[in-house]
């Protein structure tokens, strides 16, 4: 059962990787908002870039989440 | 802890059984398929082949439908709309130009009319002035004619009066001579003398 | 426990069984019409029906449904032509098919059917298909010049091996991240939904026992509102992941279509 416990703890630790993704995504949207408030006319054209950036940043967090799920259920 | 050390050797002897029992413990009641390969249903590889093949078939059919049917239809309507909008803009521009031309023409007509009116007014003024001039001239001519006539009459009257005066003067001189001298002077000589005195 | 198990929703169930074969690459393979196949069929049919309805009576002045279709169409069309350039129209059907199919599977999986895009097999195939197309176009257009993709211009010669290695690894990671992003987002969202929904049931059951259990009622209500909010968020995510997949497909295609003079 120690292996099982270690797996549970490891899964919990793995999901900590999502902290980074949270910081990253928050940073992206915050920076976007800063820029958009400075120059609102250019904001609409950058929505696509915004979501791509958010998705790229989130992907790494998702990676850790998947690892956590794998550890817990795999 | 004691329980775990007791039970530990049994799973470690058979790792596959450990995974299975762990899976069973985590899931409680599970299907037989779940016991096959780990807990996560996504990693039951016996289902991969069927799904992948089906996905590829559906994707290819959908791609062909999109590329051959739906996208061209959409594209045609979008192009048609773009063409319609472009046409409408062109015709609107033409209308605008036409309206501008008409406004120009109206402005020109207005200017012309104004000029014509001005010309007419000037002409009328000139005509009136000429008529007045003519009337004035006629009046003046008439007046001068009357004046000349009157002057003529005056001259005739004066001449007549002068004639009369000479006669009277001659008469008076004859009479004075007669009274002074007692002799009767010839009439012609008296008249000549009066005439030479003016 | 099984009813509350957040992973159980991803279990593939056989609806019609055709037996088992052994394939060289996949090993033991079940031939069956499963709930996954059914959901894929529904998503496929939904896309086809939607596109047929939109394009059946196309008018220059669009109706309501046509506006929705044209918005989706115009969005991906703009994306393809703004990222890839004038050749974007050539790749538009592929990107649009990917987008519509993933969108249909995401949204229907959230609201109605089994979530096909939470199956790693599906997302991996979609990612590999995209990157396979990228590699195929790269080799067809540029031959061995395709490898210039890994050599960015203007890099000092000393750093070149490191940069090339990094570029190569990041290229190899592209299908992995494509597949895992979609898979992880769908998996994570649905697990979170199931967990909060499970709280509602568990706390409700606690409250049914009376006594201190009544304190479970506000918790259950909170969980229920959480489920509603999460469902709204997942609707956004379902759309966003399809969109991001399309955007990244365009970016990766642009790398090889405009190789050497794009950047």
Q: What is the rounded Rg of chain B? A: 72 Å
Count the beta strands of chain A.
0
| Helix amount of chain A | over 70%
Based on Cα principal axes, name the global outline of chain A.
rod-shaped
Low-confidence stretches of chain B: 1-37
CATH superfamily of chain A: F1F0 ATP synthase subunit C
**For the largest interface in this structure, which chains are involved and how many residues does each contribute?**
B-C, 43 and 55 residues
For the sheet with most strands of chain A, the description reads: none
Mean pLDDT of chain B: 79
Whole-Å distance between the termini of chain A?
A: 15 Å
Beta strand % of chain A: under 5%
Query: What integer value in Å does the Rg of chain A equal?
Result: 17 Å
If you average the pLDDT of chain A, what whole number results? 88
Order of helices and strands of chain B: HHHHHH
Q: Helices and strands of chain A: which structural class?
A: mainly alpha
Order of helices and strands of chain A: HHHH
Molecular structure report:
- The complex is a heterotrimer of chains A (74), B (198) and C (263).
- Chain A has 74 residues and is mostly helical.
- Chain A has four helices and no strands.
- Chain A has a single domain (2-73), classed as F1F0 ATP synthase subunit C (F1FO ATP Synthase).
- Helix content of chain A is 91%, strand content 0%.
- Chain A is rod-shaped and about 60 Å long.
- The two termini of chain A are 15 Å apart.
- Chain B has a domain at 151-197.
- In chain B, helix 5 crosses helix 6 (187-197).
- Chain B starts with a helix and ends with a helix.
- Chain C has 263 residues and is mainly alpha-helical.
- Chain C has one domain (8-257).
- In chain C, 68% of the residues lie in helices and 7% in strands.
- Chain C contains six helices and two strands.
- Chain C has helices at residues 35-56, 64-83, 88-111, 120-142, 160-208, 216-257, and strands spanning 14-23, 27-34.
- Chain C has a two-stranded antiparallel ribbon.
- Chain C is globular, with a radius of gyration of 23 Å.
- The mean pLDDT of chain C is 87.
- Classes of the chains: A mainly alpha (74), B mainly alpha (198), C mainly alpha (263).
- Chains in contact: A-B, A-C, B-C.
- Chains B and C meet through helix 5 of B and strand 2, helix 1, helix 2, helix 3 and helix 4 of C.
């Amino acid at each position: 059962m120690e292996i099982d416990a270690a797996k549970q703890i490891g899964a919990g630790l793995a999901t900590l990787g999502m902290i980074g993704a949270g910081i990253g995504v928050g940073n992206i949207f915050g920076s976007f908002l800063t820029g958009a408030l400075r120059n609102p006319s250019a904001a609409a054209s950058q929505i696509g870039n915004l979501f791509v950036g958010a998705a790229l940043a989130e992907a790494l967090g998702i990676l850790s989440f998947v690892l956590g799920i794998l550890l817990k259920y795999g | 802890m004691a329980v775990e050390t007791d039970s530990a050797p049994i799973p470690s002897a058979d790792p596959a059984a450990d995974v299975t029992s762990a899976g069973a413990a985590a899931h409680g009641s599970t299907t037989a398929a779940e016991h096959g390969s780990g807990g996560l249903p996504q990693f039951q590889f016996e289902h991969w082949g069927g799904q992948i093949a089906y996905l590829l078939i559906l994707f290819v059919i959908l791609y062909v439908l999109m590329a051959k049917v739906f996208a061209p239809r959409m594209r045609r309507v979008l192009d048609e709309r773009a063409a319609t909008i472009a046409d409408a803009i062109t015709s609107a521009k033409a209308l605008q130009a036409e309206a501008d031309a008409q406004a120009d023409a109206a402005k020109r007509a207005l200017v012309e009319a104004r000029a014509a009116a001005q010309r007419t007014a000037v002409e009328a003024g000139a005509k009136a002035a000429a008529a007045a001039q003519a009337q004035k001239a006629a009046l003046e001519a008439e007046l001068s004619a009357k004046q000349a006539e009157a002057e003529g009459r005056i001259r005739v009257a004066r001449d007549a009066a002068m004639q009369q005066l000479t006669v009277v003067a001659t008469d008076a001189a004859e009479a004075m001579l007669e009274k002074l001298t007692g002799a009767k002077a010839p009439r012609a000589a008296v008249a000549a003398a009066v005439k030479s005195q003016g | 426990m099984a009813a509350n198990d957040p992973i159980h929703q991803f279990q593939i169930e056989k609806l019609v069984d055709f037996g088992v074969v052994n394939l060289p690459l996949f090993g033991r393979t079940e031939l069956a019409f499963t709930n996954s196949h059914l959901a894929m069929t529904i998503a496929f049919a939904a896309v086809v029906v939607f596109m047929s309805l939109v394009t059946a009576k196309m008018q220059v002045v669009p109706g309501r449904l046509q506006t929705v279709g044209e918005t989706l169409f115009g969005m991906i069309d703009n994306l393809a032509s703004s990222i890839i350039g004038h050749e974007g129209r050539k790749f538009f059907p592929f990107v649009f098919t990917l987008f519509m199919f993933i969108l249909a599977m995401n949204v229907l999986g959230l609201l109605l059917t089994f979530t096909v895009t939470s199956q790693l097999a599906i997302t991996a195939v979609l990612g590999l298909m995209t990157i396979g197309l990228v590699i195929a176009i790269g080799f067809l257009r540029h031959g061995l010049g395709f490898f210039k993709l890994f050599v960015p211009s203007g890099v000092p010669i000393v750093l070149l091996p490191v940069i090339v290695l990094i570029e190569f690894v990041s290229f190899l990671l592209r299908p992995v991240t494509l597949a895992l992003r979609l898979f992880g987002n769908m998996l994570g969202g649905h697990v979170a939904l199931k967990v909060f929904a499970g709280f509602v049931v568990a706390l409700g059951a606690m409250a049914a026992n009376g006594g201190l259990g009544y304190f479970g009622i506000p918790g259950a209500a909170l969980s229920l509102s959480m489920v509603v909010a999460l469902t709204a968020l997942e609707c956004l995510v379902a759309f966003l992941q399809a969109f991001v997949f399309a955007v990244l497909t365009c970016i990766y295609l642009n790398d090889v279509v405009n190789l050497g003079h794009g950047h």
